[in-house]
Amino acid sequence: MLTILGKLPSINVRKVLWTCRLLELPYELEPWGKGERDPNVPEFLALNPNAQVPVLRDGHTVLWESNTICRYLAHDSFLLPADRLQRARIEQWMDWQATELNASWRAPFMTLLRGSTQFSPEAVAAGVRDWNTKMALLDRHLARTGAFVAGDTVSLADVVIGVSTHRWRATPIDRIELPAVAAYMERLSHVPGFAENCGPGTP
Q1: Which helix (H) or strand (E) is 6 found in, with range?
Q2: Sign of CA dihedral 102, 108, 109, 110
Q3: What average pLDDT does the structure give for the chain?
Q4: Beta-sheet pairing, 2-6 with 55-58
Q5: Annotation: CATH topology of 84-195
Q6: CATH 3.30.1330.50 is the classification of domain 2-74
Q7: Who contacts 3 (Cβ-Cβ below 8 Å, separation ≥6)?
Q8: Spatial contact of 149 and 158, defined as CB atoms under 8 Å apart
Q9: What's the pLDDT tens digit per position in 94-129?
Q10: pTM of the prediction?
Q11: In the record, what terms sit under GO molecular function (predicted)?
C-alpha cells in the first residue's frame, strides 16, 4: 500500500489524495507537517531534505514534490495518458499552476487565512491583483475549452488547478467575476473526490 506523509489542510497533500481517489489507489496517510509531526527531524529529512509535505513511499520508492508524485501515480492512466501531445497539454498547465499561479497567492493567502505578519499591506494588495490576473487567464482558457483544463475530459491538470481555484475562492479577497471559472468549478463538483479536497473547510 502507498504511504503518503502529510496532512489534509495542505493543498499539495490534497492534490495527491485526490489523484489516489480518482485512480482508486489505496493509501495510508501518515500525519506530518505543522500541527502534526515536525518534518525538521532526521527521519523525515532523509526522505525529503526540503522538510516539506507531501512525501510518497511506494515500497522502496520515495518521492517528493506534489506534482511529481501525481505524475508518478497517474502515469498512463486516464488522468495522464501516454499520447505525447495530450500529456504535454496536461503537464503545461500543471507546471503553470506550480510556477505562475501558486506564486501569485502567497502573500494574500498567508496573511488573510494563515495570519502571517511577514507581508506588507502593499505586498498583499499586489498579490491579490496578480492572483486575479492569473485567474482571468485561466477563465479565458476555460471559455475556449468549454469543459476542463486540457479538453473535454478530466485530467491531472484539473486536480492541481482545481485545488488552487478552490483556494482563490476560499480566501477573503476582492475577486473579479469569472463566469467560465465558476462554470468549471460546478463541473468539477461532480467529479469524485471534489468534496473532500475542495469542499468547505479546505483552504
Answers
A1: strand 2-6
A2: positive
A3: 95
A4: antiparallel
A5: Glutathione S-transferase Yfyf (Class Pi); Chain A, domain 2 (1.20.1050)
A6: no
A7: 27, 28, 30, 56, 57, 58
A8: yes
A9: 999 999 999 999 999 999 988 899 999 999 999 999
A10: 0.94
A11: transferase activity
